[in-house]
Amino acid sequence: MATTVETCNPTTGAVIASYPLADESQTETLLNEAQAGFHVWRDTPTAQRAHALANLATYLEANVEPLGRLITTEMGKTLREARAEVNKCANLARWFSEHGPAMLADERAPVDEAEVYVSYLPLGVVLGVMPWNFPFWQALRAAVPIVLGGNAFLLKHSPNVLGSAYALLEAFEKSGFPRGAFGVINAHGEAIDKLLNDPRIAAVTLTGSVGAGASVASLAGKAIKKSLLELGGSDPFIVLADADLDAAVTNGIKARFQNAGQVCLAGKRFILEASIAGEFIEKFVEAARQLVVGDPMQDATTIGPIARANLREGLDKQVGTSIERGAKLLLGGKKVAGPGFFYEPTVLTGVEPGMAAFDEETFGPIAAMITARDADDAVRLANASDFGLGGALWTRDLARGRALARRLETGGVFINGYTASDPRAPVGGIKHSGYGRELSHFGLREFVNAQTVWVKP
Description:
Elements lengths: L3 E5 L6 E6 L3 H19 L3 H17 L1 H12 L3 H26 L2 E2 L6 E8 L2 E5 L7 H12 L3 E5 L5 H13 L7 E3 L6 H6 L4 E7 L2 H13 L3 E5 L4 E5 L5 H13 L9 E7 H16 L19 H16 L3 E4 L14 E4 L6 H4 L6 E7 L2 H9 L3 E2 L3 E3 L3 H8 L8 E2 L14 E2 L2 E2 L4 H5 L3 E8 L2
Parallel strand pairs: 5-6, 5-8, 6-7, 8-9, 10-11, 10-16, 11-14, 13-14, 16-17
Antiparallel strand pairs: 1-2, 3-4, 4-20, 9-19, 12-13, 15-18
Helix pairs in contact: 2-4, 3-4, 3-6, 4-5, 9-10
């Protein structure tokens, strides 16, 4: 078995760096450090924890450019998007530093015969198994609320963004967190079994594939440990006949093609009411044709490479099998020749259940156009999915939009917008998109012990 992991620049295909995998001795050291860091951190007053998060926000803001360039080099998103990711992380840390302590304050229960309150206490060391598509945001979206709650966080990051993982470790250390409160372990996926069975790990949060989530949930369940899963989605982007089509197209392009389409919450299945489907598709294809595929470090580029060669191969197969089953290719549909792992912006129409572009998560710049008879049929098609992460609904009738939103089987619905995450509101899914919530007070309280205290006179 390999003892190191290499990271690769998806723009050029060149190796960037090599990182040693933690052996048994190093794993033991990291777990002991995390446990020791937790013992210090749990006894640190919440106000001091919040102050450290404010320091983290300041550090990220001061290092947007080098951290953004690191993200782009490791996973290929445009530098503009990478800078935005770092700034979003800074906003996340600052928001929780300002608003989180009040959410963790003891809460009185309405009991007359005694003083009863709930304290939100840390659980211990939480293992975070995180993906590559937002190497800073995904890790911090999980870690920031978890550490504010007094837990320690041990990050097992995706192998292709290990430079980002260690940059995060440096950021925490320079922001005043005690050693071990935030740690990084470079380990094979098979090591998660052993980690979850270790008594020093109290819980686990994972963002990743359905298969990875099912495996981790099973392991955590056997060990009777709390788990949270965010497993991606095939989000519907519904456009009804009364929608503002120009706005829907503009937002649909952003929803589908940001980060080269490598977004769990991205609009992936465009479900269009029949009377406007042709006009929407025509406008959408023309807008997609203007996207620029190229060097993500250049300002003019709107779509960088797919993060890894094997991911591009899988994406190309999904397009091919969908066309074989009857989908029509309107734009793109091919790997870009030359170095790196680029893929053309792609639009498929005539997509139906039974095709990969409908049934599976397409993690790349592929937009699937689906025609619905009416609003009820659009909801039916939206719900005809194993996934249930988020969704968008476009209509000028807001009352109707709110009513239809309640019928969508998703963790979130954006009316006249596109799906995104924000620290002020919870994010998470149902069905095969996972369970649990991140962000807001819901996420802050996922990994705490809600301890009830009764004080009788």
